[in-house]
Design goal:
Blueprint: H1 6-11, E1 28-31, E2 34-39, H2 41-53, E3 58-63, H3 86-96, E4 101-107, H4 120-127, E5 133-138, E6 151-154, E7 158-162, E8 194-195, E9 197-202, H5 204-221, E10 245-246, E11 249-256, E12 265-266, H6 267-278, E13 282-287, H7 293-303, E14 310-314, H8 322-326, H9 328-342, E15 348-356, E16 362-364, E17 366-367, E18 370-374, E19 378-382, H10 388-393, E20 396-401, H11 409-422, H12 426-436, H13 439-446, E21 452-456, H14 464-471, H15 483-490, H16 502-531, H17 536-545, H18 549-563, H19 567-577, H20 580-614, H21 618-638, H22 644-653, H23 658-688, H24 692-716
Parallel strand pairs: 3-4, 4-5, 8-17, 13-14, 14-15
Antiparallel strand pairs: 1-11, 2-9, 2-10, 3-6, 6-7, 7-9, 11-12, 11-20, 13-18, 15-16, 15-21, 18-19, 19-20
Length: about 725
Amino acid sequence: MSLPTHKQQQECLGAGFTPLREDANYWKQANSGRGAFIVDGESYFRAFREAVIQAEKYICLLAWDFKGEIELLRDESPEDEYPTKLVDLIYALLEQKPELEIYILLWDYSMVYLTEREWLPFTRFRQDPHPRLHLVTDSEINVGASHHQKVVMVDGGFAFCGGLDLSTWRWDTQAHQPEDPLRVTPDGEQYQPYHDIHTAVTGPAAHALDELCRQRWQRATKEEAPWPNPSSENTVWPESIQPNFENANAVFALTYSEYKEYPAVTQIEELHLDMIAAAERYIYIENQYLSSHTITDALIERLGEEDGPEIIIILTQDTGGWLEEGTLGLLRCRLLEKLVEADTHSRFGAYFPHVSDEAGNESQVYVHAKTMICDDRAVMVGSANLSNRSMKVDSEVMMTLGLDEAAEAAPELLRRLLGIHLGHSQDKVDQSLATTNSINQTIRDLRKGSHHQLRNLEIGCAGPVRRKLADTQLLDPDDPIDLGYWLRKATRSDDSNQSSHNWKRYAIIAASIAAVFLLGLGLKEAWGSVIDKESVETFFQSLNQSPWKLPLLFGIFFLAGMTGISINVLLVSATLVISPWAAFACGFGGSLLSAVAALYVGRMAGYPVLEKLFHDRLDRLSKKIQDRGVLSVALLRLVPIAPFVVVNLVAGISKMKLRTFVAGSCLGMLPGMLGVVFVTHQAKSAYSDPSWQTWLYLGLGIAALLGLTFGVKKFIK
């Protein structure tokens, strides 16, 4: 990381903790008026209800998730006449405030989160529409990216911004009791303690967030935001929230990935790096994830300094469900290993919150916060995780205080958070910090005998293959998973200087084959932690003993073909851990059935989806498929110029006959899948029994695959 030059520093607007470089490490800066840090969901849900009840003109919500059935107040009856359930509150406000307009901009979410999302309130919004309720799902972002900003704007002069969604699993008190009967989903299901941080601001800082809402609305709808411009007067403020700062310089930074005419924005990553580089005494971090190699490398650099800052990271012991545990959790383990290895001066600590009660109940606390505090003067709070996605892919917003003049709210928030996590008063925390002059030592001292503790995270990445996989960015890419990019690149009309770049393509394909094999070995090594924390061999042994082994494997390939998961990666994994023939038979049959299913999906509703992905390239691919029939489909299967599911959908759009499509798919899939299974099986044999025969067969198999690939690609052009 290179620091700004002296000339750049002189040109910066901020001259304090770290230089401010407009459009590079921040988007806007504005006076905060009144402001507050809101810790945990119980406080935020109450403050949100109080704020929106005061609205007169408009409310705008930017949301990653939205659960209308949540109860904003638990086990109490408010004195006002408004409901406590979110969806009922929205309708009551519209009914009783004739000039109020409500705008909800919700991410048009990935199918990955289908089981976590709610349909009932959206059905109610559409079945019982209100002329002053405007619900828009925002799809103007790369496939594989998400709109992750969480902002609520009230009448232009008051705003919430931070890490909290109006969603399930967010409500909890600061006590984080292991067994709290009020901490339940709308369905009555209890969940673990949950910790998060949000902000509230007024004045010009709120106006800046209003501008962000307008930009997002225009991007999503292609129309200017219909609500009125904010005025300088503001009367909205939740009575349950005590202001923590006034007239502070609030700096806002954003993340966006490049999409259509919108450029990439990586201000949040830059500001993190600048603040990490500037810290002298300590860097205190609370975050849901740690998977950014860039951020970790910056922390490692500071740990290597003889007089560098103390670094404290608060995370969750278990990162979440099986998907997060096997991807971001694996990455976190490896990055924490690197941080421990770099901690030659004993200034690093990684912890997770743990709570217990007198009855012996205990639980970890799930950390959803995204905050960083440096040197008792600068504090950053917002929506961005310390992941490659949040730094480069998703839409994010962070608010920072103390980059010019020190923010008094920064040390107050630090002591407040440590008091919550350690079960002590802020005064007790302050006394310990003054005595030890160390956050790490204060944590170690105050957690003794307390029901609220910050326990040491278990750090270790078992197995060399899992460690090697974690060292890559395969599990947390820093580019959007934009399927359209593949098609646009493959079907570009500019073939100039193509021959001079052949060697690059050969190297990429060879590296891809090696990567697929290594990834298969990685999955074989790590699958236990992904699925059920047992080894993959145990999992497949039980599967082999089941009479449903083949149907289950068949179903896995069917779902992969429908959702865009790499079939070749699954082929490699199944070949490595089950058998080559079972992998081929189930892979071929499941993929073919999913191709037929996607064909019919494409016929019914495919065009709008693909138009979003591929824009002007859609017609070209459709023409390729329609014009060549069986041969075209076979060639596209052998050397696809678009992902498997996309070819299937486009074939449905092009009205191709079913028998033509099936015949072409069989003809094209058969040699390719056989080749992948053969090469994988031989690679496994060469790995376990490295004789010259196994290496010879492996080399011949790779050569055959490369020859088939290049020959067909040349023919198809």
